[in-house]
Amino acid sequence: MRTLGKLGLVVSWLIATALAWSLAFSLVVRENVGVLQDFWAPERLLAYGAFLVAPALTFAPLGRLVRVPFLEIEAIAGWSTSLFVWTFIDPERVRGPLAMLVVLLPLLVSVSSVFTLLSAAVELRLAARRAILPDPLRARRRGYVLGLFSVGCLLLHSLGALTAINVGLLALITLLVELLAMTWFAPVREIGDESSGSTRDRRRRNEYGRGAPRPR
Q1: CA-CA distance, 82 to 137, in Å (whole number)?
Q2: What is the pTM for the complete model shown?
Q3: Three-class DSSP category at 1
Q4: Phi/psi of residue 188, each to 5°?
């Protein structure tokens, strides 16, 4: 009976999520709600709600499932803002670095939230096999590195510079960022009192913004 209840919840969640995204897609593509100038038009208000509800239904349960803190919050903020910007902001008016930042930053957060979710799922799987605790920080780091690469490719495409050489250089830069992050945030083995035989792992203090550890 409990299994049937869980199955019913999963099916209900899938249906509600599909309906929310279908509504958002229909308003943006079919109804072309972006051409409406009245901020309080009923169609626009419905679109605002769909832009919030669709990512909330998607990432709220999945974020808890993969145990990444605040993943659902950043995913909802990133996806809702990206949908709003790409629907209601005229591309011809997006000029200058600040305007591009307004467009690309929410896109980076939304794309990275998907990669973070996938990376955290793999992290959980591997941690269960190795009987260790998963590392949500590593999953988020890899998610944003992959998101940065994806948004970089989109930016190159928009500039007409999406070539194999540029993509390769971008991939190399992304790999270097990942290697630097792995070094910077790597766990450091701290040796305790040898007489008591206590040892423990800690992360670099720089990860928490405390600067380099003081010499003893």
Answers
A1: 24
A2: 0.76
A3: coil
A4: -115, 130
Q: What is the average per-residue pLDDT within 77-83? A: 93
The secondary structure element, H or E, covering residue 191 is strand 187-191
Picking from 193, 190, 188, the residue whose alpha carbon sits closest to that of residue 206 is: 188
Alpha-carbon span 52 to 59, nearest angstrom: 11
Mean pLDDT of the chain: 81
Q: Are 103 and 83 in contact (CB under 8 A)?
A: no
Rounded Cα gap, residues 181 and 195, in angstroms: 34
pLDDT tens, residue by residue, 155-213: 888 788 888 998 999 899 988 888 887 777 655 444 444 444 444 444 443 443 444 44
Question: What per-residue confidence (pLDDT) applies to 200?
Answer: 45
Q: Indicate the residue type of 10.
A: V
The kind and range of the H/E element at 202 are strand 199-203
Average the pLDDT over 13-30 and give the result: 92
Report the largest interatomic distance among the alpha carbons of the chain, rounded to a whole angstrom.
74
Supply 71's token pair: 């993943």
Number of CB atoms found within 10 A of residue 125's CB: 11
| CA dihedral over 179, 180, 185, 186, signed as positive or negative | positive
| Total Cβ atoms within 10 A of residue 54 | 24
Q: Which residues, listed in sequence order, are joined to residue 190 by a DSSP beta bridge?
A: 200
